[in-house]
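Hi F.,

I've been meaning to write this up properly since the lab meeting, where we talked about keeping a consistent format for the predictions we share between groups. The idea is simple: the sequence comes first, exactly as it goes in, then the structure tokens exactly as they come out, then a line or two of notes. No screenshots and no reformatting. I'm using this chain as the first example so we have something concrete to point to.
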Amino acid sequence: MDFGGQSVIAIVHDGDTIYTTELTEALIEPQKRKTASNSDLRQYRRLIYNVKKVYPYAKLAGEKFGEVTAHLQTLKTNKEQKEYIKQLEKDILNQYEEELKNLTVTQGRILIKLIDRETSKTSYDVVKELRGSFQAAFWQAIARLFGSNLKTEFDPEGEDKLLNEIVIMIEKGQL
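Output, unedited:
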């Protein structure tokens, strides 16, 4: 159609003509963070650093958990499932053990929350589902010794709002 010298695209729906156009993507950025002090700014930057360091592991955990859950449903016996999980655990340890050992306690706590964000299950529930209640309780006890909790849930509207904003900015390539 010609609309005032400019070509436009229109759709006729139930006798009505609806003009359509393509809009360019709009980038919506969070408000610039106002910090009360240099100390707050340093804490914020440190949080960004820590999230950037552990987010790839959380993302990977979410993907792997989905794959493992789907594959376990194709295995017929408990023995096959246990062998598959043990082999997978060995492969993951060989590939990531050294990197994960070097995480700080703070980074570990962030990772626990981000795993919940990615899998919709707490780390405790993931371990319990894949390795059983005894293993989940054992790793929970170890986490508690270091002041962490595998049952920690991700709260994007509450205490983890800032963490969620940082993850969204990372996903959009803004950080």
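Notes:
Residues 51 and 163 are 8 Å apart (CA to CA).
The longest strand covers residues 9-13.

If this format works for you, I'll send the rest the same way.

G.
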